[in-house]
């Protein structure tokens, strides 16, 4: 087992170095932000220290296997071609014709070219033990950020049709930034948060309420329709009590209309909903009936950035019938690659309103600019 520490300016830089030195089998054990040593380091920007490990035997085995296979193909290819050429040579010497000699020469040229190509491949493989033959540096970078295949294709084709002669890296930033739409919306009237179980809806409502009531000094009301989970009501009631803001539990659709009416003097009413499985159409329809009563176009789909790529589409489309207008992405502090932000936004085709970055109420919520989000997506920044 090889364990190695890397100091880098970004996670992407660290991953690229780790993959280059330790190979794709390497795993990241830990990461932390540190300052450079010495007095000057105290004033310097924090850098990232990433610890990675790899089972070295496995890596060598894979590499040796690959090299041996290519060498075998190379040798067999040469032998086959040689035997074909020797029969051709015999033919030509029998007939003594100029035409046959030129065929032999052409075949030799083709063979030499092919051997050169294969040698090139072999060299590449030896220099590139994680076997990304055929992939561009840009593609590897995007894959390292955990962007999904479709998003990567979209980015690369957008870069390909750009005709100016800027560096690919610059074009990449522009393309990604254009794909990220930010809009925090107007948090007025009724604001509804929907999303799968446990993504942080209630905590995010408490953060928004705290920010608006305590910092912006607005009059806020809280409503929950989450009477499904034991303790859900108490969770929000506790925040409402601490912040001294009105709070109502809604059980029926009629209650919903009444609760909104009663809070008519509030600048904003934040409505918490039950976490639902996006695959359960019944549950989603039930939720829709409540939300329709609210009559708002301030509906935010809350989704965690730790959601698996394959599940993102299912969640986004499962909730589509609730006609959400914005996306809130939570738990940015729980991951070290942020490609899922772009995967989610591309799938939802809605702007991002807020991100949340921890469990602390009310501070761990912010609206980030598309430049800041681009840096995260491309691995040039992290949230610790
Ligand atoms: N690390 C981290 N944890 C968070 C964040 N937001 C919420 N959590 C935690 O996630 C857990 C679930 O949060 P809730 O707010 O209860 O999630 P929910 O979506 O309301 O859950 P249900 O009502 O059960 O669907 C809690 O432990 C929160 O403290 C965040 O940004 N970062
Ligand atoms: Mg909740």
TrEMBL record:
InterPro entries: AAA+_ATPase, FlhF, FlhF__GTPase_dom, P-loop_NTPase, SRP54_GTPase_dom. The keyword Hydrolase does not apply. Keywords: Bacterial flagellum biogenesis, Bacterial flagellum protein export, Cell membrane, Cell projection, Cilium, Flagellum, GTP-binding, Membrane, Nucleotide-binding, Protein transport, Transport. Residues 187-334 form the AAA+ ATPase domain. It is a peripheral membrane protein. Residues 188-379 form the SRP54-type proteins GTP-binding domain. The keyword Ribosomal protein does not apply. It is found in: Cell membrane. Belongs to the GTP-binding SRP family. PANTHER family: FLAGELLAR BIOSYNTHESIS PROTEIN FLHF, SIGNAL RECOGNITION PARTICLE RECEPTOR SUBUNIT ALPHA. NCBIfam families: FlhF. This is Flagellar biosynthesis protein FlhF. It comes from Clostridium aromativorans. The gene is flhF.
